[in-house]
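Lecture 7 notes: from sequence to structure.
We start with the chain below.
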Amino acid sequence: MIKKARTLFDKIWEAHVVERKENFPDLIYIDRHFIHEVTSPQAFDTLRQKNLPVARPKQTVATADHNVPTKNQHLPIKETLSKFQVDTLIQNCRDFELELFGLGHEKQGIVHVIGPELGLTLPGMTIVCGDSHTSTHGAFGSVAFGIGTSQVGQVLGTQCLLLHKPKTMRIEINGKLRRGVSAKDIILYIISQISTSGGTGYFVEYAGTAIEALSMEGRMTICNMSIEMGARGGLIAPDQTTFDYLKGKEYAPKDEAWNKAVNYWGTLHTDEGATYDKVLYFDATKIPPMITYGTNPGMGVGIADTIPLDSFEGSLDDYNKALWYMDLTAGEPIQGKKIDYVFIGSCTNARIEDLRTVANFVKGKQKAKDVEVWIVPGSKSVEVQAKQEGLDQIFIDAGFELRQAGCSACLAMNEDKIPAGKYCVSTSNRNFEGRQGPGSRTFLASPLTAAAAAITGKVADVRTMLQEETDLLTV
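Predicted structure tokens for the same chain:
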């Protein structure tokens, strides 16, 4: 009997179907459940109301990230609501005997950073969290996606979810990225081309030579922002790069179990001849350093381009409202726009590779005098490693502030907020109105482009700066 060719997504999904009935959603088993302080309280209350235990406590891991301060974490949290949410998480984890990486714990950090770095995220898994950017974990060849608070309760109580199977999309990016262009530019470019609704209803598999050439950190950045195109999630087939990253991680398989796991993981790829509901192709050589100019991630342009005269997303009124909020004018260049803050962090770009990239670029340079720069590691582990490698001193010498681990100014649910009317070049994933603080104005960009803005005090084309450095070396 000839087996039907299947996509990577189909293989993982089918392996986790507990029960299937016609005209009903599939009952899917969940391998790993991550929780944090924001979307879990009501779920635990539901368990208490129904007098239910957590079905499989060892499958759930908790951390505090959204509400935590990134300065003086040894002191009590100042903001009343933030303190209440973190304290509630601590109590819930005690009551239900769940592992918690809270403030002060060596494994604490942003939920989508600590999962991969600890080896809790593995190929072939189904992974959920009450957070939209759970898609990050798909970089390891897992089906990972965000869920709502009621679903958090369902997973805690049953370790399963009722889900309709999404459609599949393949996005293939081939060619070699040009100097100064990174994974963040790839995903911002794709979203600018297909819009923030272009992936709605789909689970996206990223493939092609440009994807294969990326590090795991780069792949996580790509999958992280799948949500910004409306997709249910994104994933990338595991390969030797994946295995090398995971080998030796604390929670990854060991010894013979490792060999067995790698043999299985090697089967997690799309079969030749498998079909997708939609396929898109992009040329990596045509992708420039990207930056957003509006109030959704689809409003992005190449750093050297002018702001479009109109948008293919939404109404003209909405487009004009976004430009009014950002105090920008259609047709003007975005390059050269003066900025006030630079934020390098978030579950999109706060890993050690991101910090190394920034440190390598700014070494020996000074930030612009009117710009405030925050470097916020994605985890305590990243924070410690940055200091061990001497990156902290490079940042200090450049006038940057290296803070402690947390979500920070990505979403301003803590003490780190961009003031009203101020411009921030941010490596985070969303530029909605008020996302980084009431009235704040956000330009999304890569860590390298953010570093260039920090040094120049304005939106700058990092390619020009890199070329100038090369020219100096050849004189």
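Points to note: The CA atoms of residues 5 and 274 lie 5 Å apart. DSSP finds 16 helices and 19 strands in the chain.
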